[in-house]
Amino acid sequence: MEARRLKVEEFQLVEEMDGKSSEATSDSSTGSVEVISMDPSEMEIDFIGYDISLVNAYRRIILAEVATMAIEKVYMYNNTSIVQDEVLAHRLGLVPLKVDPRFFEFRNKDDTEWAAQDSVKYELKVRCSKNPEAAPNETNPDVLFINRKVLSSSLKWVPIGNQTDIFQETNMQPLHDDILLAKMNSGHEINLEAYAVKGIGCDHAKFQPGLCWYRMLPEIELTREVEGKQADLLQTCFSPGVIDVITTSEGKRVAKVKDARNDSCSRNIFQHDNIKDAVKLTRKVDHIIFYIESHSALKSYEMLEEAVKIMSGKCDTLLSEIEKHLETNMET
User: Fold this and answer.
1) I need a surface site. Which of 200, 231, 266, 286 has the fewest CB within 10 A?
2) HSE of 164 in the Cβ direction (CA atoms, 13 Å)?
3) Does residue 128 contact residue 147 with C-beta atoms inside 8 Å?
4) C-alpha 269, offset from chain centre
Protein backbone atom coordinates (compact mmCIF):
# COMPACT_ATOMS: atom_id res chain seq x y z
CA MET A 1 0.00 0.00 0.00
CA GLU A 2 1.46 3.37 -1.04
CA ALA A 3 1.97 5.87 1.78
CA ARG A 4 -0.19 9.00 1.54
CA ARG A 5 1.76 12.21 1.08
CA LEU A 6 0.91 15.27 3.16
CA LYS A 7 -0.48 18.29 1.42
CA VAL A 8 1.25 21.62 1.89
CA GLU A 9 -1.48 22.86 4.24
CA GLU A 10 -1.30 19.68 6.31
CA PHE A 11 2.49 19.88 6.51
CA GLN A 12 2.35 23.48 7.71
CA LEU A 13 -0.17 22.49 10.39
CA VAL A 14 2.00 19.60 11.62
CA GLU A 15 5.07 21.82 11.64
CA GLU A 16 3.21 24.50 13.59
CA MET A 17 2.01 21.96 16.17
CA ASP A 18 5.53 20.56 16.55
CA GLY A 19 6.84 24.08 17.09
CA LYS A 20 4.28 24.73 19.81
CA SER A 21 5.06 21.46 21.58
CA SER A 22 8.78 22.17 21.50
CA GLU A 23 8.18 25.65 22.93
CA ALA A 24 6.13 24.14 25.72
CA THR A 25 8.84 21.65 26.68
CA SER A 26 11.84 23.95 26.40
CA ASP A 27 12.35 27.45 27.70
CA SER A 28 15.19 28.25 25.31
CA SER A 29 16.09 27.41 21.73
CA THR A 30 19.60 26.37 22.70
CA GLY A 31 20.40 23.62 25.16
CA SER A 32 23.21 23.21 27.65
CA VAL A 33 25.24 20.32 29.02
CA GLU A 34 26.43 20.16 32.62
CA VAL A 35 28.85 17.56 33.98
CA ILE A 36 27.72 16.77 37.52
CA SER A 37 30.40 14.21 38.36
CA MET A 38 33.07 12.40 36.39
CA ASP A 39 35.75 9.82 37.09
CA PRO A 40 37.21 6.95 35.04
CA SER A 41 34.51 4.50 36.12
CA GLU A 42 31.35 6.63 36.40
CA MET A 43 29.93 9.80 34.90
CA GLU A 44 26.78 11.82 35.54
CA ILE A 45 25.84 14.51 33.05
CA ASP A 46 22.77 16.72 32.54
CA PHE A 47 21.32 17.48 29.10
CA ILE A 48 19.17 20.59 29.51
CA GLY A 49 16.95 21.79 26.68
CA TYR A 50 17.55 18.75 24.47
CA ASP A 51 15.01 16.26 23.19
CA ILE A 52 15.09 12.93 24.98
CA SER A 53 15.54 11.11 21.65
CA LEU A 54 19.06 12.54 21.34
CA VAL A 55 20.07 11.24 24.76
CA ASN A 56 18.52 7.87 23.97
CA ALA A 57 20.51 7.75 20.73
CA TYR A 58 23.75 8.17 22.69
CA ARG A 59 22.63 5.43 25.08
CA ARG A 60 21.90 3.01 22.25
CA ILE A 61 25.20 3.76 20.50
CA ILE A 62 27.21 3.20 23.69
CA LEU A 63 25.56 -0.16 24.31
CA ALA A 64 25.53 -1.40 20.72
CA GLU A 65 28.22 0.32 18.66
CA VAL A 66 31.14 1.44 20.85
CA ALA A 67 33.83 -1.21 20.36
CA THR A 68 35.84 -3.08 23.01
CA MET A 69 38.11 -6.13 23.15
CA ALA A 70 36.89 -9.50 24.44
CA ILE A 71 37.95 -13.13 24.19
CA GLU A 72 36.32 -14.70 21.14
CA LYS A 73 38.14 -18.00 20.49
CA VAL A 74 39.37 -20.54 23.04
CA TYR A 75 41.52 -23.55 22.16
CA MET A 76 41.12 -26.08 24.98
CA TYR A 77 44.09 -28.46 25.17
CA ASN A 78 43.35 -29.96 28.58
CA ASN A 79 40.58 -29.40 31.10
CA THR A 80 40.10 -31.95 33.85
CA SER A 81 38.22 -29.58 36.19
CA ILE A 82 34.51 -29.97 36.88
CA VAL A 83 33.74 -26.91 34.73
CA GLN A 84 32.75 -27.96 31.21
CA ASP A 85 34.80 -26.64 28.29
CA GLU A 86 31.98 -24.52 26.86
CA VAL A 87 31.13 -23.03 30.26
CA LEU A 88 34.76 -22.11 30.90
CA ALA A 89 35.05 -20.57 27.42
CA HIS A 90 31.90 -18.54 28.07
CA ARG A 91 33.30 -17.26 31.36
CA LEU A 92 36.54 -16.25 29.66
CA GLY A 93 34.60 -14.28 27.06
CA LEU A 94 32.92 -12.23 29.78
CA VAL A 95 36.19 -11.23 31.49
CA PRO A 96 36.75 -7.49 30.83
CA LEU A 97 40.19 -6.63 29.49
CA LYS A 98 42.43 -3.58 29.89
CA VAL A 99 43.24 -3.66 26.18
CA ASP A 100 42.44 -0.37 24.43
CA PRO A 101 40.32 -1.22 21.34
CA ARG A 102 41.34 1.98 19.55
CA PHE A 103 44.75 0.45 18.78
CA PHE A 104 43.21 -2.54 16.96
CA GLU A 105 41.27 -3.22 13.80
CA PHE A 106 38.15 -5.32 13.38
CA ARG A 107 39.08 -8.88 12.48
CA ASN A 108 37.92 -10.26 9.15
CA LYS A 109 35.78 -13.36 9.69
CA ASP A 110 37.48 -15.07 6.76
CA ASP A 111 40.98 -14.72 8.27
CA THR A 112 42.58 -17.94 9.45
CA GLU A 113 45.69 -16.41 11.06
CA TRP A 114 45.82 -14.32 14.22
CA ALA A 115 47.53 -11.02 13.41
CA ALA A 116 49.05 -8.39 15.68
CA GLN A 117 46.77 -5.62 14.41
CA ASP A 118 43.48 -7.40 15.22
CA SER A 119 44.12 -10.04 17.91
CA VAL A 120 45.43 -10.47 21.45
CA LYS A 121 46.60 -13.89 22.63
CA TYR A 122 46.39 -15.29 26.18
CA GLU A 123 47.48 -18.52 27.82
CA LEU A 124 46.04 -20.17 30.89
CA LYS A 125 48.06 -23.03 32.38
CA VAL A 126 47.10 -24.02 35.93
CA ARG A 127 47.50 -27.28 37.82
CA CYS A 128 46.07 -27.92 41.28
CA SER A 129 48.18 -29.88 43.79
CA LYS A 130 48.24 -30.63 47.50
CA ASN A 131 49.86 -28.09 49.78
CA PRO A 132 52.71 -29.83 51.62
CA GLU A 133 52.76 -27.11 54.27
CA ALA A 134 49.09 -27.54 55.23
CA ALA A 135 48.39 -28.65 58.81
CA PRO A 136 47.20 -32.26 59.30
CA ASN A 137 43.91 -31.10 60.79
CA GLU A 138 43.30 -28.41 58.13
CA THR A 139 39.85 -28.60 56.50
CA ASN A 140 39.81 -25.43 54.39
CA PRO A 141 40.27 -26.54 50.75
CA ASP A 142 41.79 -23.16 49.85
CA VAL A 143 44.62 -23.98 52.26
CA LEU A 144 44.80 -27.72 51.55
CA PHE A 145 45.41 -27.21 47.82
CA ILE A 146 47.64 -24.96 45.74
CA ASN A 147 45.83 -23.23 42.84
CA ARG A 148 42.48 -24.30 44.24
CA LYS A 149 40.84 -21.24 42.63
CA VAL A 150 41.51 -20.30 39.03
CA LEU A 151 41.24 -16.51 38.80
CA SER A 152 41.41 -14.10 35.90
CA SER A 153 44.95 -13.25 37.02
CA SER A 154 45.97 -16.67 35.67
CA LEU A 155 45.49 -15.37 32.12
CA LYS A 156 48.91 -14.50 30.74
CA TRP A 157 49.42 -12.27 27.70
CA VAL A 158 51.40 -13.80 24.83
CA PRO A 159 52.54 -11.09 22.38
CA ILE A 160 51.83 -11.56 18.68
CA GLY A 161 54.30 -10.09 16.20
CA ASN A 162 55.60 -6.69 17.28
CA GLN A 163 53.06 -6.09 20.06
CA THR A 164 55.85 -5.89 22.67
CA ASP A 165 57.12 -2.76 20.91
CA ILE A 166 53.71 -1.09 21.18
CA PHE A 167 52.07 -2.30 24.39
CA GLN A 168 53.10 -2.77 27.99
CA GLU A 169 52.16 -6.02 29.69
CA THR A 170 50.26 -4.22 32.44
CA ASN A 171 47.88 -2.75 29.82
CA MET A 172 47.10 -6.14 28.28
CA GLN A 173 45.87 -7.96 31.37
CA PRO A 174 42.27 -8.51 32.58
CA LEU A 175 40.69 -5.41 34.07
CA HIS A 176 40.12 -7.24 37.37
CA ASP A 177 42.47 -9.96 38.57
CA ASP A 178 40.11 -11.58 41.10
CA ILE A 179 37.35 -12.90 38.80
CA LEU A 180 36.72 -16.56 39.63
CA LEU A 181 36.84 -18.80 36.55
CA ALA A 182 36.88 -22.31 38.07
CA LYS A 183 37.60 -24.35 41.20
CA MET A 184 39.81 -27.43 41.12
CA ASN A 185 40.89 -30.31 43.33
CA SER A 186 44.27 -31.99 43.52
CA GLY A 187 45.34 -33.34 40.14
CA HIS A 188 43.00 -31.16 38.10
CA GLU A 189 44.55 -29.15 35.30
CA ILE A 190 43.53 -26.47 32.78
CA ASN A 191 45.60 -25.72 29.71
CA LEU A 192 44.23 -23.44 27.01
CA GLU A 193 44.88 -20.62 24.59
CA ALA A 194 42.47 -17.71 24.14
CA TYR A 195 42.29 -14.97 21.52
CA ALA A 196 40.61 -11.60 22.05
CA VAL A 197 39.28 -9.53 19.15
CA LYS A 198 37.56 -6.20 18.64
CA GLY A 199 33.77 -6.22 18.59
CA ILE A 200 30.61 -4.25 19.34
CA GLY A 201 27.67 -4.83 21.65
CA CYS A 202 25.12 -5.54 18.93
CA ASP A 203 27.16 -8.64 18.03
CA HIS A 204 27.49 -9.89 21.62
CA ALA A 205 26.90 -8.37 25.05
CA LYS A 206 30.47 -9.21 26.10
CA PHE A 207 31.66 -6.37 23.86
CA GLN A 208 29.57 -3.73 25.65
CA PRO A 209 31.94 -1.17 27.22
CA GLY A 210 29.68 -0.54 30.20
CA LEU A 211 26.21 0.50 31.26
CA CYS A 212 24.28 3.71 30.63
CA TRP A 213 20.80 4.91 31.43
CA TYR A 214 18.89 8.15 31.86
CA ARG A 215 15.96 9.67 33.67
CA MET A 216 14.08 12.94 33.60
CA LEU A 217 14.66 15.39 36.41
CA PRO A 218 11.97 14.91 39.10
CA GLU A 219 9.91 17.90 40.20
CA ILE A 220 8.18 17.96 43.58
CA GLU A 221 5.75 20.69 44.59
CA LEU A 222 4.04 20.96 47.98
CA THR A 223 0.47 22.10 47.39
CA ARG A 224 -0.17 22.89 51.05
CA GLU A 225 1.70 23.23 54.29
CA VAL A 226 2.56 19.93 55.96
CA GLU A 227 3.53 20.10 59.62
CA GLY A 228 4.10 17.97 62.70
CA LYS A 229 3.81 14.20 62.41
CA GLN A 230 2.57 14.52 58.85
CA ALA A 231 5.83 16.29 57.94
CA ASP A 232 7.83 13.40 59.41
CA LEU A 233 5.67 10.90 57.52
CA LEU A 234 6.10 12.86 54.31
CA GLN A 235 9.87 12.80 54.74
CA THR A 236 9.92 9.00 55.07
CA CYS A 237 7.97 8.61 51.83
CA PHE A 238 10.91 9.91 49.76
CA SER A 239 14.55 9.05 49.34
CA PRO A 240 16.99 10.59 51.84
CA GLY A 241 17.75 14.22 51.10
CA VAL A 242 14.56 14.95 49.13
CA ILE A 243 12.33 16.32 51.90
CA ASP A 244 13.61 18.31 54.87
CA VAL A 245 11.73 19.13 58.06
CA ILE A 246 12.54 22.59 59.41
CA THR A 247 11.39 24.61 62.38
CA THR A 248 9.87 27.98 61.53
CA SER A 249 10.20 31.18 63.53
CA GLU A 250 6.77 30.41 64.96
CA GLY A 251 8.01 27.10 66.35
CA LYS A 252 6.18 24.88 63.87
CA ARG A 253 7.90 21.91 62.26
CA VAL A 254 7.03 21.97 58.56
CA ALA A 255 8.19 20.03 55.51
CA LYS A 256 9.93 21.58 52.53
CA VAL A 257 11.48 20.25 49.34
CA LYS A 258 15.26 20.11 49.78
CA ASP A 259 16.49 18.45 46.57
CA ALA A 260 14.04 16.79 44.18
CA ARG A 261 16.94 15.38 42.14
CA ASN A 262 17.49 12.65 44.73
CA ASP A 263 13.94 11.37 44.34
CA SER A 264 13.70 7.77 43.10
CA CYS A 265 10.03 8.19 42.06
CA SER A 266 8.85 5.49 44.45
CA ARG A 267 5.32 6.99 44.76
CA ASN A 268 5.10 5.83 48.39
CA ILE A 269 3.27 9.06 49.17
CA PHE A 270 0.10 7.72 47.58
CA GLN A 271 -0.19 4.99 50.20
CA HIS A 272 -1.17 7.63 52.79
CA ASP A 273 -4.56 9.27 52.25
CA ASN A 274 -3.91 12.05 54.76
CA ILE A 275 -0.93 13.54 52.91
CA LYS A 276 -1.14 12.34 49.30
CA ASP A 277 -3.01 15.50 48.31
CA ALA A 278 -0.18 17.68 49.63
CA VAL A 279 2.31 16.76 46.91
CA LYS A 280 2.36 17.19 43.14
CA LEU A 281 4.89 14.96 41.37
CA THR A 282 6.04 15.70 37.83
CA ARG A 283 9.15 15.38 35.70
CA LYS A 284 10.98 17.97 33.63
CA VAL A 285 10.94 16.52 30.13
CA ASP A 286 13.71 18.74 28.76
CA HIS A 287 16.13 18.08 31.62
CA ILE A 288 17.67 14.61 31.21
CA ILE A 289 20.07 13.09 33.75
CA PHE A 290 22.42 10.72 31.91
CA TYR A 291 24.52 8.10 33.71
CA ILE A 292 27.49 6.17 32.31
CA GLU A 293 29.28 3.34 34.10
CA SER A 294 32.38 1.73 32.60
CA HIS A 295 33.49 -1.87 33.03
CA SER A 296 36.01 -1.96 30.19
CA ALA A 297 39.31 -0.41 29.11
CA LEU A 298 37.43 2.72 28.04
CA LYS A 299 36.84 5.32 30.72
CA SER A 300 33.32 6.62 31.25
CA TYR A 301 33.93 9.89 29.40
CA GLU A 302 35.76 8.07 26.61
CA MET A 303 32.65 5.96 26.05
CA LEU A 304 30.60 9.12 25.53
CA GLU A 305 33.30 10.60 23.30
CA GLU A 306 33.29 7.51 21.07
CA ALA A 307 29.48 7.60 20.91
CA VAL A 308 29.54 11.24 19.79
CA LYS A 309 32.08 10.39 17.08
CA ILE A 310 29.89 7.55 15.81
CA MET A 311 26.81 9.80 15.81
CA SER A 312 28.75 12.50 13.95
CA GLY A 313 29.84 9.93 11.38
CA LYS A 314 26.24 8.85 10.81
CA CYS A 315 25.20 12.48 10.28
CA ASP A 316 28.06 13.04 7.81
CA THR A 317 26.99 9.94 5.87
CA LEU A 318 23.41 11.15 5.72
CA LEU A 319 24.42 14.64 4.56
CA SER A 320 26.72 13.25 1.87
CA GLU A 321 23.93 11.04 0.53
CA ILE A 322 21.57 14.01 0.40
CA GLU A 323 24.19 16.05 -1.48
CA LYS A 324 24.71 13.22 -3.99
CA HIS A 325 20.97 13.01 -4.55
CA LEU A 326 20.69 16.76 -5.07
CA GLU A 327 23.62 16.77 -7.52
CA THR A 328 22.04 13.91 -9.47
CA ASN A 329 18.73 15.77 -9.71
CA MET A 330 20.48 18.94 -10.90
CA GLU A 331 22.32 17.04 -13.66
CA THR A 332 19.11 15.46 -14.89
Assistant:
1) 266
2) 5
3) yes
4) 31
